[in-house]
Specification:
With 435 residues, the protein is an alpha+beta fold. The chain is 22% helix and 22% strand.
Length: 435
């Protein structure tokens, strides 16, 4: 019987021959010292007889490999980026398999991303009407609103304030809704002059904008529904077959693939999106000794562990009428500085509703296609995971028309000091834990 992941975990949550189709075929070596395993036929790379982590060499953008992953069927794997190594695999999943996974997910029921600017939020807006006074934040300073320094605040300047100080991209209609909801009489003539500023309820405006940022489907960081499906011994043939295909694609040890997280199926409806984010944690952001979550599930609900997803494999389960691309804003960006990017020195490129097409790589959704990338670099000395690749930043662009279904296979892996541990997701018996 198929099972779904318990709700308290949702916060986180052999080998056949590969045939290259150009002359740059890899050397038949088992060394991990270069940071890539270059073996093409033997499977997981080894060092002193100990299997390590496999990592496909991207070679160059546009490079194609032809792989046999299931029977005699040939799959094409195309390099889309070098940093992080990002690969596209058209028709990785059949239309029937994609439809089946959607049907399974719908049958179990998606967990709603259910915070909308709905009656609950409107009720809060009614409460805010009586909130007087100026905000102690940036909203409480007149010159932050008066962009052209003419001692008047227009609705257009409200939009500019929200963008600059809140990373909130309001429409003129949304500004009108806010004025009406908060009963901002100072805007009766469309302009707030400096003497009227004294009574303008900027504290209420500040809180209203924060509500929009957190609750409105178009403005929140993420708007989607999801469900988790186990792929273990109780799963149906489609999910088990998919996992075996992933096993052969990634060339990782079976204990790592079988110790991966359950399959996450995501549905994006109108306004559906997920702004740019990382799938994995940066070790330096946590106290020394903090375990990866797949080794410490008791800490996972409390977010007292690190998410250590070595590989992400994303499947497109349907075609999307308009929008819904997957964007990698900084893939292959030269001289990338994560701190400057996070501080929005070149604009808020995290917001993929506004900046989707400015991303360095934009992958359109196509039913059956998979994309795979590495969230971590390899430690050249140990062959295990090293630090996070900050160029793995990615997200889902807004669905402008229709609905979008995807699924995520996340494969956590060890660092050198945890190589002896088994993932707590691992539930399936198999003959050799080093396979």
């Amino acid at each position: 019987m198929l099972r779904i992941l318990p709700g308290f975990l949702l916060v986180l949550i052999y080998f056949q021959r590969g045939i290259t189709d150009d002359s740059a075929s890899q050397a038949n070596s088992n060394s991990c010292s270069s940071g890539y395993c270059s073996v093409e036929e033997k499977g997981p790379c080894e060092d002193d007889g100990e299997p390590k982590l496999y990592r496909w060499d991207p070679v160059k953008v546009g490079y194609k490999r032809r792989l046999k992953l299931e029977g005699e069927k040939v799959y094409t794997m195309i390099t889309r980026a070098l940093e992080p190594p990002l690969f596209e695999i058209p028709d990785f999943m059949s239309p029937e398999e994609a439809d089946h996974i959607i049907k399974l997910a719908e049958g179990f029921g998606f967990l709603k991303s259910d915070i909308h600017l709905d009656p609950m939020a409107k009720k809060h807006a009614q409460t805010l009407r009586s909130t007087e006074g100026h905000s102690n934040s940036s909203a409480g300073y007149f010159l932050n609103w008066d962009v052209d320094k003419d001692y008047e605040i227009t609705k257009d300047e409200v939009i500019k304030f929200a963008e600059k100080f809140k990373y909130l991209y309001m429409t003129p209609a949304e500004v009108d809704d806010m004025i009406k909801a908060l009963e901002l009489k100072e805007f009766d003539d469309g302009i707030v002059e400096y003497p009227e500023w004294r009574t303008l309820k900027t504290h209420a405006i500040d809180m209203y904008m924060n509500d929009m940022k957190e609750k409105h489907p178009r403005h929140r960081d993420r708007f989607s529904d999801q469900v988790w499906l186990f792929q273990g011994v109780d799963a149906d043939n489609t999910l088990q077959r998919l996992r075996e295909r992933v096993h052969k694609l990634t060339r990782l040890q079976k204990r790592i693939v079988y110790g991966g997280e359950p399959l996450q199926v995501v549905r994006y409806g109108p306004y559906g999106h997920y702004h740019a984010h990382y799938d994995s944690s940066r070790k330096s952001d946590y106290p020394e000794g903090t375990k990866c979550c797949h080794y410490d599930m008791e800490s996972a609900p409390l977010a007292k562990c690190r998410i250590c997803r070595y590989i992400t494999i994303l499947y497109y389960l349907n075609d999307v009428d308009e929008g819904g691309e997957t964007a990698f804003p900084v893939a292959d960006m030269k001289d990338f500085n994560e701190t400057k990017f996070r501080d929005r020195e070149d604009g808020d490129r995290f917001n993929l509703n506004e900046y989707c097409q400015t991303a360095n790589i934009v992958v359109p959704p196509k039913k059956g296609k998979a994309i795979m990338w590495y969230n971590y670099r390899l430690d050249g000395k140990t062959g295990w995971m090293s630090h996070r690749d900050d160029r793995s930043l990615h997200g889902g662009c807004i669905v402008r028309k229709g609905v979008k279904y995807i699924a995520n296979n996340w494969l956590p892996a060890p660092e050198n000091d945890s190589a002896h541990l088994l993932s707590e997701y691992l539930e399936d018996p198999y003959e050799d834990s080093n396979q």
